[in-house]
UniProtKB/TrEMBL annotation:
InterPro entries: AB_hydrolase_1 (IPR000073), AB_hydrolase_fold (IPR029058), AB_hydrolase_sf (IPR050266). The lineage of its organism: Eukaryota, Fungi, Dikarya, Basidiomycota, Agaricomycotina. One of its GO terms (cellular component) is membrane. SUPFAM superfamilies: alpha/beta-Hydrolases. It comes from Suillus luteus UH-Slu-Lm8-n1. It holds the Pfam family Abhydrolase_6. This is AB hydrolase-1 domain-containing protein. Residues 18-240 form the AB hydrolase-1 domain. Signal peptide: none annotated.
Amino acid sequence: MSNSASQWGSPTASRRALLIHGMTMCSNSWEGIAQRLVAEGFFVIAPNLLGHGGRRCTNYQISEFAEDLRPYFALDTSYDVIMGHSFGCLVTLSLLPFLPKTKETTIILVDPAIEITEVQFNSYQNVFLRWTANHVNTTEEHMAENPVWSRRDCVLRTLGIAMVDPDTVEVFKRNKSWSSSGLLKNIPPHIKVTILASDPKLDANCILEHIPRDAERLDVKVFTGIGHWIQYECPDAIMDAIPLPRAKL
């Protein structure tokens, strides 16, 4: 297992969660959600993806990002919840073959792009370059642009961008298209998937028309007035999507 990861809670906790960050983020960016999960009895692990958190990236295929995480499933290690945000959703879906068929796993996709065309990849490339080239926004600038974010989240956003390998932009050059709809139409019986989609009017990654209709074991929730960074803007929405033991009345 890579040493480039953040952990919260006790390894002996009865439940486990694996959190997969998005492009230009880092493992620490899950701090707020991770602390909430620990309070609910989880042990939480968040790896730094290739090219992030000070790591180098030399292979830019999305499948390699998933393969790099295979050690987190060694020795039959399993998770109750696996959550991805943005680009991390593509990686999360690529992890499905690693999951044990004997355990039910909840997959939560936070504003995923279900179908990505070459035009969209080019657009994402331009955003990546804008975020990482020359001037990296300060914490104060992030706070001004995102007034509902906590200062902690703004600090971690700045940290993630500062620690990304600029060569990771090659991901957008090497992958010309991507489709997750086939996976979502055929979700294995031991997996449940919830898509948390941000407001389509706020530059959401998730285009609702791309989500398969009537797919089994797939739930979709759309949040009006909430943008791409659902975990920062409305962390309660994230926690509501996680199956938790109900108190006995």
